[in-house]
Amino acid sequence: QVQLQESGPGLVKPSQTLSLTCIVSGGSINTAGFYWSWIRQLPGKGLEWIGYIYYSGKTAYNPSLKSRLTISLDKSKNQFSLDLTSVTAADTAVYFCARDVVGGTYDAFDIWGQGTMATVSS
Amino acid sequence: SSELTQDPAVSVALGQTVRITCQGDSLRNNYASWYQQKPGRAPVLVMYGKHNRPSGIPDRFSGSNSGNTAYLTITGPQAEDEADYHCNSRDSSGSHVVFGGGTKLTVL
């Protein structure tokens, strides 16, 4: 049973970098057919797709975040990470990592981490 | 702004049937996936693809599509189905994932 677990600092200062890691257990991240993804939810709002990385290293990012965003993969540790630079209060959110099953005509996020709250404040 | 539109709130009487909609041009070429989210919890996938229901999801949940609209139907909703429901698909370019704004379902 694949499980995902986010980790990272709960509090980040404005203009600094938010770094989060998602540890994958119960299965290998080095597997075709899945996009390893980050999704966030601003307080009281809907879900926002941040981006994903494939086992080959291919990435796709939300255009609104692309200039500040890097998603990377560490196969040796079976984990993937998010770095979001120059954060502001508008980046305060619950951040989820999730597995996206690539179906050709659909994206289905079938496994989610529990989510981690990241607050941007001085 | 999202390329997928959902009604912010829908209510249904216990045992009746409710249909939650997700509208967007990309749905003409892609299927929506649907998620149930309860307060303080991560979303749970309830429908995806043309008619796929993950293991463990009750069969009162079903999905359908027509033109640029995807539908999540709950037949005979139970009190525990009260939650937020989110849809996702691709954007018009096909290169990025997008979510709808979510629908808060109240079971009366």
Number of helices of chain A: 0
How many runs of DSSP E, i.e. beta strands of chain B? 9
* Biggest protein-protein contact in the assembly: A-B, 26 and 27 residues
Gyration radius over CA of chain B:
13 Å
Order of helices and strands of chain B: EEEEEEEEE
| Secondary structure tally, helices of chain B | 0
Keywords for this entry:
heterodimer; A: 122 residues; mainly beta; 7-stranded mixed sheet; globular; B: 108 residues; 6-stranded mixed sheet; 9 strands
Task: Please describe what this structure looks like.
The complex is a heterodimer of chains A (122) and B (108). Chain A has strands spanning 3-7, 11-12, 18-25, 34-41, 47-53, 59-61, 69-74, 79-84, 93-102, 107-112, 116-120. In chain A, the strands form 2 sheets. In chain A, strands 2, 4, 5, 6, 9, 10 and 11 form a 7-stranded mixed sheet that branches. Chain A contains no helices and 11 strands. The radius of gyration of chain A is 14 Å and the shape is globular. Chain A has 122 residues and is mainly beta. The model of chain A has no long low-confidence stretch (mean pLDDT 97). The termini of chain A are far apart. In chain A, 0% of the residues lie in helices and 54% in strands. Chain B has no helices and 9 strands. Chain B has strands spanning 9-12, 17-23, 33-37, 44-47, 61-66, 69-75, 83-90, 97-99, 103-107. With 108 residues, chain B is mainly beta. Chain B starts with 8 loop residues before the first strand and ends with a strand. In chain B, strands 1, 3, 4, 7, 8 and 9 form a 6-stranded mixed sheet that branches. A 3-stranded antiparallel sheet of chain B has the order 2-6-5, with no helix packed on it.
Ordered list of secondary-structure elements with their pairings:
The complex is a heterodimer of chains A (122) and B (108).
Chain A: E1 3-7, E2 11-12, E3 18-25, E4 34-41, E5 47-53, E6 59-61, E7 69-74, E8 79-84, E9 93-102, E10 107-112, E11 116-120
Parallel strand pairs in A: 2-11
Antiparallel strand pairs in A: 1-3, 3-8, 4-5, 4-9, 5-6, 7-8, 9-10, 9-11
Chain B: E1 9-12, E2 17-23, E3 33-37, E4 44-47, E5 61-66, E6 69-75, E7 83-90, E8 97-99, E9 103-107
Parallel strand pairs in B: 1-9
Antiparallel strand pairs in B: 2-6, 3-4, 3-7, 5-6, 7-8, 7-9
